[in-house]
Design goal:
The chain is of the alpha/beta class. Strands 2-1-3-4-5 form a 5-stranded parallel β-sheet, sandwiched between helices. Helix 2 runs parallel beside helix 5. The N and C termini lie close together (7 Å).
Length: 157
Amino acid sequence: MAAIGRILCISGPNLNLLGKREPAIYGRETLAEIHKRLEARARSLHVAIDARQTNHEGVIVDWIGNATDEGEDGCAGLLLNAAAYTHTSMAIYDALRATSIPCVEVHLSNPDAREVYRRRSYIARACIGRVAGFGGDSYELALEGLVRWLQRDRPRS
């Protein structure tokens, strides 16, 4: 089986406030704790993970665009919790489409069970799948799904 390489995990606005922000919706686990668990799961799957967070849409667009580089930012796949930008950002959608990097959309809560405006995802059409509603476990489940997808669909050596 071919080595997959590195997976980039991007978390968007206000996720740096996890653990304090609306715990009834998002839980009490911090993003650092989620990232630590995600890194452990990545090791067990024999992939490298680069987990990042920003509150800035342009930074997310830059990270996605740079993810295709063969250098240090190059990656095989992407986990993306665009948070509120999921429902508003054509720029992130365009970046995903431009790079063609396999991406799994991630959400801690289930947007479809929340306010009407959260039920539309602008990025969904550029993603291979979506994991939502499992709290911090959504990241690990998305990673597992992405790794399986990459193992199936990557050219064999």
